[in-house]
Amino acid sequence: MNTHHTTDASKAVVQAYMDTLMQGDMDALRAFFDSDTTWTLAGDLPLSGTWTGPDEILGEFVPAMLSRLVPESMEFEIEGLLGEGEHVLAEWNTRGLARAGGRYDQHCLAIFTIRNGRITAVREHLDTLHAKTVVFA
């Protein structure tokens, strides 16, 4: 297996996922996940923990987070992708207004694991204190 080829293919999947996310096409996002894909949010936020499969990730986790933010105010900015084989580190900024009134300006890092063109696992890290103070106020 050519590691360079694997790295490029893995990065392409994450880039396509991020592009789809920025377009807000939730239905199209489902195709990136397997039924047993896990998304783990680090920390001790109300939403921290592991979510499994597209129904939990896109049907519960993402809406629970977005419900605390004003949709029209949301902006995503990709800072970059670093890849090594089937692992891709994505770095992005999420900005918007929290329904609680504060300004959300979050820097996020997530390690994506890609197999057979699909996302099989994500481990996301962010400033949980900022999220707790602004989003979960």
Could you explain the architecture of this structure?
- This protein is an alpha+beta fold and 137 residues long.
- 34% of the residues lie in helices and 41% in strands.
- It is built from 4 helices and 6 strands.
- It has helices at 3-23, 26-30, 53-66, 128-134, and strands at 33-41, 49-52, 75-84, 87-97, 103-115, 118-126.
- Strands 2-1-6-5-4-3 form a 6-stranded mixed sheet.
- The protein is globular and about 50 Å long.
- The mean pLDDT is 94.
Number of helices, counting only DSSP H or I runs of 4 residues or more: 4
Form type = globular
Widest sheet: strand ordering: 2-1-6-5-4-3
Unreliable segments (pLDDT under 50, ≥5 consecutive)?
A: none
Specify the structural class: alpha+beta
Find the count of extended strands (DSSP E, 2+ residues): 6
The end-to-end distance, rounded to whole angstroms, is 48 Å
Order of helices and strands: HHEEHEEEEH
Summarize model confidence as the mean pLDDT.
94
Evaluate the radius of gyration. Answer: 15 Å
Q: Helix coverage percent of residues?
A: 25-40%
- The percentage of residues in β strands lies in 35-45%
Largest sheet: 6 strands, mixed
